[in-house]
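In keeping with the milestone schedule agreed at the kick-off meeting, the structural modelling team has produced records for the first pair of proteins. Each record is given below as a sequence line and a structure-token line. The laboratory manager (R.T.) confirmed that both were archived under the project's standard naming scheme.
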Amino acid sequence: MSVIASSQPHRDIQQNKAPALNRPQNRLVIGGLVVAAALTLFLAFTQDIVQPLLLVIGLGLGYTLFHARFGFTSAFRRLASVGNGQAIRAHMVMLAVACSLFAPILAIGTTFFGAEATGNVSPVGVSLIVGAFLFGIGMQLGGGCASGTLYAVGGGRSVMFITLLFFIIGSTIGAAHFSFWMNDMPAAEPFSLATSTNLGYGGAWLVSLLIFGAAILLSLWIEKKRNPPKMAALPSASGWKRIFRGSWPLMAAAVALAVLNALTLLTRGSPWGVTSAFTLWGSKAADALGFNVESWGYWQGNIDALHASIFADTTTVLNFGVILGAFIASAAGGLFKFSNITAKNAAASVIGGLLMGYGARLAFGCNVGAYFSGIASFSAHGYIWGVMALGGTFLALYLRPLFGLSVPKPKDTFC
């Protein structure tokens, strides 16, 4: 029987009933709330009104991700290894709700504050294909995708600090190589189901729902053929206490994430993303070390953002919110605890982080910015990102054992 080591309860081990809840770590919860309140006030007094609002949205995203252990990396791995599509179906519900909310917002085209609302619609080309494939490998070695890295850091999973560091480094290297991939590699124009066709947002919404429905049916067909183990129950409270203590159902989290993404779009004018902030942080560090960052193609036309405060960057504020939200959620569940780091999982985190960072820059985003927000924006590149990341996941299943990382098997008790 195989066992997966983790510092946190997860949905991998198949059990008949959920384990008992731990006691809440009240001091940590209070500390997290104090830091969140202080940061909110700081942003309110020093930045545009959008920034403190985005911090609150980020707190909600991190809280939701941790409470449901909502994974992108694990969902792809379960499907690729044993054919379990439970989490993938949650993805489809999330995307369906997001598309339903994005369609009228993008059709109207304005935010809460009167700015233009635009979706994440990016070109389809070699950079997208290569980048998403590399990201798929990286997220399976690094132990989490972009959002997964942030919420795992917030939950105290020590090795993910290594993943995050090298994610930032990989993103920075990708920014330095950005001109080559954008200018020297072939690519088609961005394609939107809504604006590049005669469908409009109503027709694109309907087509999207049909695609999500087909994906759900395909996942059910795969499960029928392969009869995989089911996802485990997680510790949870009952009644209204479940909002604060214990796990949330995947489908509830899927709806919550879609709503929060739509609120992000309505607040800042663009959907949720993660990795552009990593590129900003790394580029600022490279600039301080003497690299000629301003000459990189990635920053052409956006030099002001490079030299502005990180607190003026909307994605940075969202990321801080996700980490804090996950920290509060983990402490409320009595689960915050730093975990052990071994040489093998550290090496996997280094390689995985580099591949994810580099891949995200090539592919116009990660599991959030390209896959989730791209598909919700009716962009073809979001679907291609998902397919190529799944392809990278298949290859990574052969690489994970080299680093002592488990690979689910049909007869194991986990998936």
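The second protein of the pair:
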Amino acid sequence: MRGGDSSGLRAYNERLILNAILRAGALSKAEIARATGLSGQAASVIVNRLLEDGLLIKRDKVRGQVGQPSTPIAANPSGAFSLGVKIGRRSVDAVLVNLLGEVIASRSQSYRVPYPEATVETAARQANGLLAELDEARRERVVGLGIAMPGELHGWATELGLAADALAGWREIDAARALEEATGLSSALYNDGTAACAAEMIVGDGIVRRSALYVYLGTFIGGGVVLDGRLYRGEQLNAGAIGSMPTCAGDPQARPEQLIHRASVIALERVLEAAGIEAASALSGADLPAAEPIFEAWAEGAVAVLARSVVSALAVIDFEAVVVDGLLPPSWRRRFTLRLAEALEGFDWTGLQPAEILPGSIGPMARVLGAAMLPLKARFSPDAELVVRSVASLVVGPNGAAGEASA
């Protein structure tokens, strides 16, 4: 066997072991060998190397069981770190996570308009601020920077109430390269819907079926698609772009609107602000009785159009579940999900099987958390695709899309 092949196999086996440990929490060397299919000697050699590298740690021996006491091996939370940045239509968020996906520190800044240069400068400042919180030794363990952004951000000026060319500068800015130069980290760009769906798959509780339609109620609605247990991007990288689905037009001669115009949170924000209610406070879950009837009215209309889109999607792909997450506070998210399930009961299901309608479990942090987790998975997973309930990886290109979610 050539040296390169041997090195590749060794790296694969290291990822295989680390993946098994991350999934289980902790395993003895014997359990690691059984879980990975490696020989006991091979598993022991690799585990010892990962212990020396600081990626694994030993826990106290477990006594009182049949046989010799065993020493559980676990992932070292400080063995690796990753940065995630979400550039949205309403805010920039950044998080620093450890090898376990735990958030170590975060930054957030809201704005009315995502002007290109100022927004990228803010993202770079946030990322470098988080890096500054690490000492030199831990700084060297940062594996990369993931960036979650809406697709074609320059094309949404009109929907944000701006002049058509107000965001044209996004055509010229390479956000991944700019942040890579600013931080010195290898950067990867993901669609924000892809990142949100990935977060739900990696650390969330909502996606447990092998097929699911993921709906993200962001400033503009979007989502993702899970097929055969894997996040599916589509041949043209548009899978899950439910915001672009047409809605029924009242005038047969009129051009149908898209779902993004009828079921996006930006519409709720505008009605709240018009009523003198701070939208940010309402969406944070503050107890604002005056916001309740406004939410109910918006949800009624949004659910009605979304339900038709869900049935249409189920007629094309036999999804087992529809998972709804997004910017809404948990109580509103649960009520919206229940309303959607009730609305779906009123459709003619002849020839179709209803899907289970479930709330997502992460909320507003899904996009930035997914952006942070994906570089870790790309570095330490043995798989090439993100798989349900695993810590496998997915790397998408600059225009990768699983929908048009976002804030």
